[in-house]
Each structure stands twice: as C-alpha cells, then as structure tokens.
Amino acid sequence: MCLWAGLAVPGNSMPGIAQASSKRGAKTVGRVHIFRGDAPDEPWKFSKEAFSYEKSGTTTICSICPNHCVLSPGDRSICRSKVNIDGKLYSLAYGNPCAVHVDPVEKKPLFHFLPKSRAFSLAATGCNFRCLNCQNWEISQVRPKDVRAYELFPKQAVEHAQRSGAESIAYTYSEPITFLEYTLETAQTAGKKGIKNLLISNGYINREPLLKLCKAVDAANINLKSFDDKIYRKLNGGTLKPVLETLKTLAEQNVHLEITTLVVPDYVDDPAMIRSMCKWIAKNLGVNHPLHFLRFFPHYKLDRLPPTPVPVLENMRTIAMEEGIRYVYIGNVPGHEANHTWCHSCGELLIERHGYEISVPGLSNGKCSACNAEIPGIWNRDEA
Amino acid sequence: MKKTPETGIIQLVVATGIASVACQLLIIREFLSGFEGNEFVIALIMFSWLVLGGTGTWAAHVAEQRFSPSGLSRLALLSMILAALAPLTLLAARTARDFAFVHGSAAGFYTTFAYIFCIVAPYCLLLGFLLPYSLFCARHLDPQFSGTRVYIADNIGDVCGGAVFSFILVFVATPLQSMLIVNSLLVASALFLLSGSELLRAKILIPAAVAFTVLIAAPGVEKISLHQHPGNLVHYEESRYGRIEIFEDHGQHTLFLDGRPVFSDRNVTMAEELGHYPLSQVKNVEEVLLISAEGGMIREIEKYSPERIDYVEIDPGVTRAVFEYKMLKKIPEINVIHADARLYLSRTANSYDAVIMNLPEPETFQINRFYTKEFFRLVRARLSGGGIFCFHSGAVGNYISEIQRKKISILYQTASEYFPEILMLPGRRLYFLCADRPLNPDIPALLSEKKISTSYVHGYYYGNITSERISDLKSALYNNTDPNTDFSPGMVAVMFSQWFAKFQTTPALFLGLLALGLLVYLIRTTGEEFVLLTTGAMTMGGELLVIFAFQIFFGYIYFQIGLIVTVFLAGLLPGALIGERLKNMGRRIFLLTDGVLVVSMGLFIAALYFAGSLMPESAFLLVGGIISVACGMQFPVALHLGGAGNPAAVRAFSADLIGAAAGTLVISVILMPYTGLFWSAAALIAMKTISLGFVSLRYE
Questions:
Q1: Strand, helix or coil at A354?
Q2: Predicted-complex ipTM score
C-alpha cells in the first residue's frame, strides 16, 4: 500500500524526502525504515499526542523531523518513539527517561556556557539516525518499552533538577528531537523556574518545530557529523542539508550554539571537506560559535577503524582557525592545549580546562581581562 | 608404484586433500580477520564449507547421471580451476568486504553468513564435486574401484595438508605464498595425471599455465590487499595465532590484531585507567603482572617504581612489534613472558601486588577461560597480601541495558567467590577492582597522596565517575546469577546475545531452517547414512569438546592443539583401512564402533569430572584417536552395506559432511554456551546411543 506516494508533504524539498520513498510507502534513507505493525494496541502511561503531525484518513505523517514518517495505524516511526494508534500519532517517550545523570556542562560539550556548572541530563529512548558509531545505541536504537525507565514527567523532572543543584537541564545522550514533546514541555517548565535548557542533538529537525524549541532552549550543541551528504547517509542514516538548516535557524534565533564534529578516520578527516565546512560555518553562522573536533575511538558497529591521530585533529583546528572561526577545541585528547579557551583577539588564556577541573583566569564580565575583547558565550554571573 | 591412471587419480585426490585443508585453514583465518572472531562466525564458516561441499558432492552425482562419462582430462581441468580459485577466494574474502559492508564497520550474523557463503561457494562447490568425481573417473576405468580408496586418499591429503600448514607454512609463508605452495602441488598432480597420455595437449597446458600464473601473481598483491586503513602499513606478520598489523598515521601507531584495532600508542585514557585504577590502591607496588597490555601503559606503571613487571603475552609476534614501534616502553624492570597467561599462573611460584588483565571480552571459549571462577581462584592464589586484581568488560554508557546487567552480574558474582571486595568503575571500559580489603573509589585523592600526576584521571575522574554512577552499577546487579565456570561458560552466551542485540537480530530463523532441513534429510535418509551422519556430528562435536577441555587445563598451546586436530584427522586413515578389511562384518562393525564412540565419550567426560586437571595431555590425544578411528571404520562398512555404486558413495560422503556441519554448529553455538560441557557431551552420547539402538534394530 502506498497511500502517500506523490503527495505533497510539507518539507518535501528536503533532500531526505526527495530520496526517501520506498515501495512500501515508508520514508527511507539508506538502511533507515519505519516499523510496520510494531505499535502497541493502545497508548500507555507515557504517551502524549504528538506535537506536530498531519493526517489523511487514519494515516499520519510526522512533521517533526525530515524523515516525515508516514504511518498507518499500527506502525512505528523510524525513531521508534512515535506510533499511529487508531489514526492518532502518539509519542511513547513522554515522562519516561531511561538515563538521568548530573554531568559537568563541559561534558556535553558546551565550553562557552556557564563554565563549571552542572547539567541535569536526561534521555528517553529513540533516535532518527542510525549512526554506526553511536555511543548510546542501547537507548537510541530501542523502543521505549524495551528499557527500564524512571517516571519523571516534566514537572517532576524540573523538581529533580532543582534538587540536584544543576543550573541547567540537558536533553542529551539519545536524540531529544525524537521525544520532542517531553523536551519542549520540560524546557518550558524549567524556564519558568529559572533553569536553563540545553539541547544536545544531531539537528535533524524541521524548521517549524525547531522554531518552537528555540523559544525554550538556551543553548545547543549540534553534532555536525560531516560535510558530505554521502557520508551522512553511509555512517548516520541521515542527510546533511536539514542539519545545516538547523544550524542556521539556531544562530538566527540567538540560541547559544556550539558545534561538534567527530573526526572519523577515512570519512571525516579530509582537510578539503573540513575547510569547506568551516567556510560554510563562518559565512552562514559567523565565526563566534565554538567548534569542537572530537577524537574518534572505535565503538559500536564502527569498530574496525583506528583512533583519530592527534595531528589530524590539530590540522582540522588549524584549518578552522584559518577560516576565521575563533574558538576551536579538540576533544577526547586529555591534556591538549586546545582544551583551553584562548582569547581570539590577544591570545591570552581565558579558561583553563583539565578535564572537568576548570579555572577561569582570564575572563571578566564576559570579556578578556587582558585586552577587553568580548568573548562570545553565556557566562557565570561572577564572570558576566 | 607403477603409474596407472588409477594411481594418478589417487595422487590427485591426495593433492586435493592437502590443498583443500590448507586453503580451508587460510580462508578461516582470513574471515576471522574480517569479521567477529566468535564461535558463531567460526561455526558459520565451517557450516558453509561443509554444506557447500555436500552440495558439490550431490551435484557430482547428478552430473554423472546426466552428462557424458567422466574423463581424466576433465578431472585435471577441474583440479586446475580449483587451484586457481583458492587464492582468488582468499583475495575476495579480504577485499570484497568493503564493497559489501560500510568500510570499517562490523557485520551482523546474517550478513556475515551471506558474505561467507557467497565468497566460498565457487571453491567449496567445486571441491565437493571433485571427490566423488574422482571416484567416478576411477570407476570409469575400473568398475570395481573401491570408494574407500578415495576416502583414504582424501584423508591422507587432509592430514598432510593440516600438518603442513599448521606446523610449517604458518611459520614461513604469507597466506598467498602458502596458497601458491599447496596449489602448485595440485596443478602438478593434475598434469602428472595426464602425463604420457595424448590427453596432455594444449587445451590442458593452457589452463595449467593460467592456474600457475594466478598462483604466482597472487603473493605479489598480498601487501596491497591488506592496506585497508589510513596511513602506512609498517608492520605485517602472520603469526601462528593470527594476523598482526601496525599502521602508522601522522605519527600514531595502531596495532591491529586479526583486523581489529587493539590499541594505539596515544590512548592516554585507557593507559591511565588501566594503570592507575588498580595501582593507586596498593601501598607498595613491587611486583606487577600484566596479562596483555595497553599502549602507553608501562609509562604509567613506571610512576610507581615497581621492582618487576611481568608482562605475559601469548604471541611473541605481538611483543616484538609493540616494542619495536615503541607502543610500549621498554624498561629494565619489564620481564616479557611468552605463554598462555592461565598456564603461566598455574605454574609460577611468584606472587604479585597487582595483576592487571587487559583482554577482550569473553566472546570465545578460549578467552572465556580468563573470566571463570577457576581462573579467578588462580589469580587470588598468586596475589600477595593486600594485592589487587583488575580486569574489565565493555564500556557501560549512560544506561545499563539488560544484557549489560547480566554480564556485569555474572562477572561480579564470579569474582566475588574469591574476592570479598569488588569496586566497579565505569570508564572507557567497566573496570572491576578485586581485593580482600576495602577499596577506595577516590582515585584522584589516592594519586595525590602518592604524588603521581596524570593527564586524564585527575581532570576527568570526578566528572565521569560519580558516586551516583557507581551506585547505579551496584544496584543493577542481579543477585541470583550463576557464576561463569570453565565447564559452564555462561558469559559466552551473554556475549552472543550482545552481538545479536547490536544488530537487532536473532539466529532463530537460521537455526529453525537448519533444524527443518535436517529433519527433512533425516526422514529421507537410509540407515547407513544415519549412522554416518551422527558419527560425523560426534566426531566434529567431540573434537570441539576435547579442544575446549584441553585449553581449560593446559592453556592455549598452539602445537598441542594442532596435534589434537591432526590426531582427529589422522585416526580416520587407519580406521578406514581396518573398516575396509572388516567390512563384511557389516552391522557388527557399526555396533562396535558406535559402542566405542558412546563409551569413549562417556569415559572422557567422567574422567574430566572426577580427575579434571590430573588427566595427562596424552589422554586427550587418546580420546581423539579413538573417536577418529571409530569414525573412519564406519565409512567402508557404510559403502559396503549401502551398495558399492556411485549413488551410495555420494550419499555416504554427503551424510558425513552434513553430520559434521550440524555437529559443529550445534555444539559450538548452542549446547556449549547455553548448557556447558557436560550436557553437550551428554547430548552427543544420547545421539550416538540412538544411532546404536537404530543399528541394533535396523539390521536385526
């Protein structure tokens, strides 16, 4: 059955959609597919009608991410969190996070956002990508009912965050876009209590839901996995263009934005590609968004590649700085000088990081103590 | 021996046996370098090999009935094609992977199976075809030619091929050089078959030249075909234990063992975690034992000024390479020991302040021996007062999955049998620190007391290893798990589950179809085939059990394991000769040999249970020999009882192969991991007892 073939779906101009119709009517990118007949018979305690979808008869089209899952009753979305039950689209990941921890904000990584603060970090299951090197595949590639979960509805989650002493709530580990209803409502509740909200995401989201999210989120770290659509499809089961659109939207909406790129050997280590990426960032987002190059280690299904050589990361950093990006960091390399923040103007040491041991010797009122240059970011009250 | 066409055929069968077994071993090693090295993959290779071989055998039967009479020139031509296919199959196994899978990624069960099956299909089908086809050729010349002669010749070839590869070629030649050597013999035998005959003309000489060209050219592309990672391949070695490669990229050296990156010289995090988590707990670090190591680790251990570091590594090739490329610092205190670590621990009188084990997770029975109750007891006995033992399992992320819970629970339960205090620390791996005294989780504080500086631990520890994460781990433990033991390797089953979970699949469909196919085959099978089928399963299953038990007590000793495999192959030969002489006794031989198989396996298991480590090494060889001789005796009898015609011979060959395939698969991936050694043996005994009962009734 192919009810939706040829139907004008909002966002159809996105590359993910253009190449995404299958014989069965499912939207697919590479190995990504919906799950036919995998939905429960009825909603459960942790269900919430989906935030954004369209209907035609009993068929639903999720409009949260560029996958645009077209679901008949009984079907489950690519991200495994959304199901069509009797013609309504539900999220099954609402109030049931399976991972809850309090982490240093630098771990997200966010280096220009309230240094030394703690982030109450939570994740429900699901992801709209299929990254071969996923660090959290045991929660991102399963259904909500497959895990042991906490019962933390938005109000309770915010109370827990307050009790933990965290200054922010991070929606992280798996993919918060797949539990957007939960993310959005918790963020709105937290915002009212003065708690900041952090989106740690692959950025694979449509513009309309993102605009709503931007109103509730204070900072985001978006994983720009490469600058090549083919690599996106191959390693991640997604497409590049929607992620770039997300980055532009976040920058436009003045959400504090940092970008992370995992430098996977043989895939994301081409200097020419990295230079194009940095040019694009500088041109479209500006030069003030911190960029993190992370060292790859073999993991999950991508376990037959070597770790990224440190000089390759250093070369990436040099390229990024040559293209004008002011704050470029190297991650997963303990003790490297590119873990620290250096003033873009005078080169003075602003923030010294030894892992999560942070000192802020050169920053005062959000400015470099030496040259008074304004340092982009959201800083602690004593530094801001 | 006067040269007749028949002797030429027998020589060709021997050469085919030599080449095919050596090629099989080489191709298995190649697949183990390209895919997971677990028992499932090994079983899939053996299964594909045997099933395709059986199909080729069946195809020979069909071809013989439908096409023109078998001819020597065709036999020679097919043998040359087989010889040329061998290196091409190996190269395809090595290089086609990146076309079939995402470069650098692991493969799941079904995709691995499909890949292996497709790659080996041409070679195995032709190989399976050639054995009965040789017999048909011989019978075309002499209708009374005995099938047993071909069976014996094949066994001679198999034994020689296994021995030549395991004891000579693996030490002196690369895979494609080995292919050249063993397959040149095959091409030469094919030419010899036709020598002096008018059949030896251009249309045979040209294929021979092509086959030789392929064989000679192949070693020339050995290194290029191995170059699958960024940087330069600066070290390549095929040791008896597997493939060792070191790639250098931008000054970073990465050691790959069997195609997987094991460690690099710049992995500060792992080196510090492995070194400091255990050693920071020890008051005076004097004697340290490393069971395998991590790049940069010696530099960290050196900070404690130990008097001696014993570094045990089974493969001398690995230590040579890592020291040559300075992936480990060579200091005067380090004492390298090339041995199976378990064997070393059982024999040494040394005691240690710390034993640090850096081995892969127990995906195979061989590695599982280092995660059992018996091994932990051994380690405990070698620790000095206040000493510490550190091992690790895979990383635990932000969520502890059900499989992780089972894994952690089994390891914790197993270790807690001998260590009253166990501290679990989640880092790049999940570390288990085991001791008989309370342990302090505040590693940075301990390091500060000792005035030891680090790049990773001091800065990252408190952010990554919170008390909440440690207590989450403890609360995730199941209380009622059985410990992992030598004879009941439950951890292997959990590791299988983890592999399947990663690829979101189960082997149920495969195993279900296999069971159905076997059932259909059993319904259609004759009495003699049933006996051969169960004997094939008993022989392969028995071989796996004997090797498994041997490793438990004596460690992984390359030559002894090779000897056991050789004995299992070699016993078939005298068995077949005796069987040929006594074949007229028919049913009584079946009864006798089935009885011997049941009794010998029963006695072996009883001896293991009651005598265990007191059993001499020779006992394992004796059991192998008895099983093998009994198996060999049955083949001529089956041919005799089933009628000496070609169809009967084909069915007999097929039954043997299918039984061997089923035995390999069922024992290694179902019975051993899920029920343990004793129940596996009991299943084999039960199967053969049914066969025995069947023989008693069927031939009454």
A1: strand
A2: 0.90
